[in-house]
Amino acid sequence: MKIVSVFHPLFQCASFVVGVYNARMGLTRKGFTYQRHLRFGLLYYGMAALGLIGGWLIHESLEEAGIRLDMGPHLEVALLLILFFLLAGGLGLLIRYRPTLRTALLPIHKYLNLASLVLFVYQGFTGFSALLRFMLS
Ligand code: HEM
Ligand code: HEM
Predict the structure, then answer these.
(1) Residue of 12, 76, 136 to test ligand 2 pocket, by largest number of atoms within 8 Å of CB
(2) Threshold 0.85, pTM exceeds
């Protein structure tokens, strides 16, 4: 059981790395092409969403075994992240296909995505502290 509960955190760490990579590409424009940025953006959103399902499955199996971890608002922040992904990704597509909106929408796209990475760190904080307490119990 303890081993299984490590998969979700490790997978989400990998999603975070992909997100940071894409943010760096956007901010520095190094190696930036729209197709490349879109591909890594979708990979980041897709991996994080898949990881969310994984986290929920682990939560269910832990609860079946009578184990309840104190995760703070981990679930609520996870749902907020999905909202950020939908908004930021949608804006990214709008910027691409309605170039007249670029000046107004690009900062929102940028800050929503960067905020998602900050929330990710917060998820790591609530997740790893609960996991550590569980591992040591
Ligand atoms: C569906 C996924 C995404 C789409 C369609 C998309 C689209 C775009 C587009 C069209 C631009 C403007 C390029 C230009 O005309 O200069 C852009 C810039 C940018 N994107 Fe994305 N993006 C996506 C995901 C992401 C993700 C996941 C991140 C970060 C985690 C990110 C961070 C940035 C940043 C930092 C910029 C530069 C902003 C600036 O120069 O002020 N994007 N994106
Ligand atoms: C590296 C960062 C993360 C760590 C260490 C972590 C850790 C954990 C752990 C240990 C659990 C199982 C605890 C339990 O509920 O019984 C869990 C559950 C969960 N995680 Fe994460 N997590 C991380 C990132 C994320 C992210 C980014 C998301 C969302 C995109 C997410 C979504 C969830 C969800 C939805 C659950 C189920 C919670 C519930 O149903 O109450 N996690 N996480």
Answers:
(1) 12
(2) yes
